[in-house]
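The instructor's notes for this session suggest beginning with a concrete chain rather than abstract definitions. Hand out the sequence below and ask the class to guess, before any prediction is shown, which regions might be ordered.
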Amino acid sequence: MALLLEHEFQPLPADNQIETLPFLEAVAHLPPFFDCLGTPIVYSPVKADLAGNIKKIRAVYDSNPTKFKTLQNILEVEKEMHGAAWPKTGATLALMWLKRGLKFMLVLLQSISDGERDEEHPNLIRVNALKAYEIALKKYHGWMLQKLFTGSVYALPYKSDLLKALEKGKEVKEEESIAKIHQFLSRVTPILDAIYEMYTKMNAELSYKA
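After discussion, reveal the predicted structure:
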């Protein structure tokens, strides 16, 4: 899984404090995942949004690496800095949307690796993509965006083509690709769960629609 394992995420520490720089360096390699899904009209904006949010968080981190050493530091400092405008501002808002895009990606890959599929069309990934969209993004999208996304599943690549794209065009046995997806998920899922938990604990989650 050349694309997913290109830059490994650091293990989640026992205190759940995620260091900002290693996280950003690892996650910066993931936006090209959305190129593998085809349908540029839908997934190019998602890719651009992901990359843009990474850039915004990096700019905040670079302004004071000591102050913003961990993702938790970012939320805590920005809460003090921005007052009533927080959390709908700065790197806090960027990370909120970044985690949603990552959640879509992880749920999609988890569903594929778990073998969830349409029995009549086992090489299609519509079932997996719809599940990921329902869980990660749908409630944050208005009616038009929801229609666009749910319609886009009919233009998604075959599972075999997606796995080949993730291997950067190499022919690899499906079970080998799935094993690599498991490896990626085992490292990234605890980190994403910790970020979601942090937003819940700090009451930083927003439910407005894009």
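Then share the key points. The mean pLDDT is 94. Residues 174-201 form the longest helix (28 residues).
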